[in-house]
Amino acid sequence: QVQLQESGPGLVKPSDTLSLTCAVSGDSISGDNWWGWIRQSPGKGLEWIGYISSRGITHYNPSLESRVTMSVDTSKNQFSLKLSSVTAVDTAVYFCTKKRGGVGHFDYWGQGILVTVSS
Amino acid sequence: QSALTQPPSVSESPGQSVTISCTGTSGDIGRVSWYKQPPGTAPKVMIYEVTNRPSGVPDRFSGSKSGNTASLTISGLQAEDAADYYCSSYTDSYVVFGGGTKLTVL
């Protein structure tokens, strides 16, 4: 069974960079899969941030693209998200996800991690 | 990339059927999936590629599409179906979510 687990600071200061990691178990991060991030502001809907292939090919939400960097570490079977210059509007639960190549849906999700942007 | 519009809320009695719509604002709505999210949990895919059900999803859940509007229908409503439901569209490697619909089972 594939399991995804987010980790990282729960509190980030305004203007700093938010950094999260997603550990993958039950599956290899290599292969024809895409590993992504989706966030949900408190009481709000889902917002796609982007995803990355095991080869490092990325697709980002155009509205966040200038601040987002994703990376993959195949040796640790994990992938990461960095979001720069954060403000209070970036406060959200961040979910890491898996999408198989060639499909348009996310079939595995982490439990989510709440990141609050505050001084 | 088309934005997706869903009704904020729907409600129906147990045993009845309910349909949640998802309308794209421009062009083809693309490859649609539907997610169920009970409070405090991660979303779970219920329908993908418009009409397909993942293994383990009851056949009470069905999807369809007509023009730029996709629909999720839940028949034989049960109390456990109460949740937020999100549609999602995948086009040209980009993903967009609808605003979500809160389903209340009366």
Name the beta content range of chain A: over 45%
Shape of chain A: globular
Task: Indicate the radius of gyration of chain A in whole angstroms.
Answer: 13 Å
Query: Which structural class do the helices and strands of chain B define?
Result: mainly beta
Oligomer: heterodimer
Helices and strands of chain A, in N-to-C order? EEEEEEEEEEE
Structural Rg of chain B: 13 Å
General description of the model:
Chain A is mostly beta strands. Chain A has no helices and eleven strands. In chain A, the strands form two sheets. In chain A, strands 2, 4, 5, 6, 9, 10 and 11 form a seven-stranded mixed β-sheet that branches. In chain A, strands 1-3-8-7 form a four-stranded antiparallel β-sheet, with no helix packed on it. Chain A starts with a strand and ends with a strand. The model of chain A has no long low-confidence stretch (mean pLDDT 95). Chain B is mostly beta strands and 106 residues long. Chain B has strands spanning 4-5, 9-12, 18-24, 31-37, 44-47, 61-66, 69-74, 83-91, 94-97, 101-105. Chain B is globular, with a radius of gyration of 13 Å.
